Amino acid sequence: MRDLFRFLLGIRDTLLFLALMVVASLLLYSGNMHHRAVAINSSNAVAGTVLAWRDQVAEYTNLREVNARLAAENADWRNRHSSAYAPSVNPVVRINDTLHAQQYAYVPAKIVGSTWHKQRNYVTLDKGEANGVRKGMGVIGPDGIVGVVHDASARFASVISVLNPEVKTSVKLKRSGNFGLLYWDTGDPASASMVDIPKHVRVAVGDTVVTMGGDGVYPTDAPVGVVAEVSSPPGRPDQAVVVRLFEDLTRSGYVYVVNDLRRAERDSLQQRQQPQ
Amino acid sequence: MIGSAITNLGRFAVLILLQVMVVDHLRLAGIWIVPYLYVLFLLMLPFELPAWGGLLIGAATGLTMDLFNSTPGMHMSACVLMMFARKRLLRLMAPRDGYEFGMRPTVPGMGLAWFATNAGVLIAIHHLWLFFVELHRFDAFFSTLGRALLSTIATLGLCLLAQLLTTRTALKSRA
């Protein structure tokens, strides 16, 4: 018995090493899927606060560019606003529009931290549960989709970027309506792959790719990118399509968190349909 | 002993903040060079530190980085592996009479060649592990290897630069 203790004492550092590696591996594999008491991601208040400090210091350096983007976006909204249209006929009756109920509410948020040069990229936003941001909501920028919220604290949210192979987005070709999954395996922050497009579908370089919608994450037809390369590798049931993303994820700035107001209703319906 | 603990704690705070606020935003060569200067804190821990202490400090440091990067376990495992290798490497690279009390694992303490070798090997271990765990697959083997090695060179360069800058101020304050 004493020999056993002496032996264990002799290899105690190796045992500690192995124990710590097991803990790290458990964290790595249970990773971002499970709920934990303490979130090990940047939605954590400490990390979020430090990243927000940094952003406060650095935000002046790109104000010019951010302003230009906001101005362009404002102009775009203004063009769609009713005041931009002169009535072509005199309105006689005002109708309370019950055909068009609001389906999406957008929460504006600022990117306080983001990576694009790693193999798994995340974005941290300065809005959290206090502002209505919840896990699973989509995030879109002025030009295209950005990612999906995977955790939110009271004041911060951590978003899995489109530049992360963990997230697969349902997208479709705007022209033909054929759908597939957008998946980041290119290693290039400006592009991603679209998989599951069958070989008989004609895909042309320059085709616009938009979101499928209907999943409660992104609205339907939100811009994603354009087809940059198409090839038909043998031994694969689908075509290899490379999409150039509209949203420049290497920039910081303002984005919108998408709140699908009908999501709860659809989710509960789909849950009821599933066999118990 | 307590002075050394405070110095190391200060170095930990400075290097983590430097990593998160500055180094993580360096765009040296896109996805090819991603330096992790914070490992300098682990490289400069005193020789007298027992192995178990080094492993626990490595785990805590890695977990702190994971907190900022939303990567649970990734930096933690890389740092723990690096600290495990460090104890063995230090034994391998010890002077003939062992380390004297008060010797420091720094450029002025052990010389440039010793520090560069020791730091280079450990940073390479840390980065190779980190980049392959981050990738989670092996199909982009050579590009990942290239990224890890280029980043190792960048991190080593930053570590030497940091030593150079802090050593000069130390000499000045002594004079």
Which features does this protein show?
heterodimer; A: 276 residues; alpha+beta; Thrombin, subunit H; 6-stranded antiparallel barrel; 12 strands; globular; B: 175 residues; mainly alpha; Arp2/3 complex 21 kDa subunit ARPC3; 7 helices; 0% strand
Largest sheet of chain B: none
* Sequence of secondary-structure elements of chain A: HHHHEEEEEEEEEEEEH
CATH superfamily of one domain in chain A: Rod shape-determining protein MreC, domain 1
Specify the CATH class of one domain in chain A.
Answer: Mainly Beta
- State the major sheet of chain A: 6 strands, antiparallel, barrel
Low-confidence stretches of chain B: none
User: How far apart are the termini of chain B?
Assistant: 25 Å
Question: CATH top level of chain B?
Answer: Mainly Alpha
Oligomer: heterodimer
Measure the end-to-end span of chain A: 53 Å
- Our Rg estimate of chain B from Cα atoms comes to 16 Å
Helix content percent band of chain B: over 70%
